[in-house]
Amino acid sequence: MSPSPSSSSPSQKPEVVQRRLDSLPVDTRQTSVLSSLLTPLLDESMAAYRAELTTASHEYRALTNMNNQAAAVYRAAAESAKTAADTVEQLVDAKTEALQDLASGTSIDEVDRQVGELEALCTRLETYLRKLETRVAKVSPPGMSLLL
């Protein structure tokens, strides 16, 4: 009794299978017919698988390129957003500082006092101007005026 394939060790299996194949009667005519029928079938199957795998490979390559381009666009957008955020932050800081200087430097009472002083100065200037016009009118010949 020959050893069963399940009872033999893994290294003995190929030898057992080969011995069994060798013990089978071989009809060379059937083998060549079978070979001639299977060879084109296997070639066509291999070509179909190769075409499928090539198509999938091209699709994956195209997807990789699109992903890389999208990533580049998003990196550029992120850089632009970061620059804009930094600029806005700088503007806010500058304007906040300017407003704090304005608010702490002068109070409304101080501005009101300065406006009052300016109004008093304008009144004095107008009075001086009227006096000057009167003097010029006295000194200048009749019918001639220096004022426009």
How would you summarize what this structure contains?
It holds the Pfam family BLOC1_2. By secondary structure, the chain is mostly helical.
Give a structural overview.
Belongs to the BLOC1S2 family. InterPro entries: BLOC1_su2. This protein has 148 residues and is mostly helical. It has 2 domains: 76 residues; 33 residues. The longest helix has 78 residues. It starts with 12 loop residues before the first helix and ends in a 9-residue tail after the last helix.
Low-confidence stretches: 1-8
Taking the sheet with the most strands, its summary is: none
Provide the residue-averaged pLDDT.
80
* Number of helical elements: 3
Number of domains: 2
Q: Gyration radius, to the nearest Å?
A: 53 Å
User: What shape does the CA trace take?
Assistant: rod-shaped
Provide the helix percentage: over 70%
Question: What share of the residues does DSSP label as strand, in percent?
Answer: under 5%
Summing up helix and strand content along with how strands pair, one would put the structural category as: mainly alpha
Query: N-to-C SSE series?
Result: HHH
- Strand runs, count: 0
- Terminus-to-terminus distance: 143 Å
Descriptive labels:
mainly alpha; 148 residues; BLOC1_su2
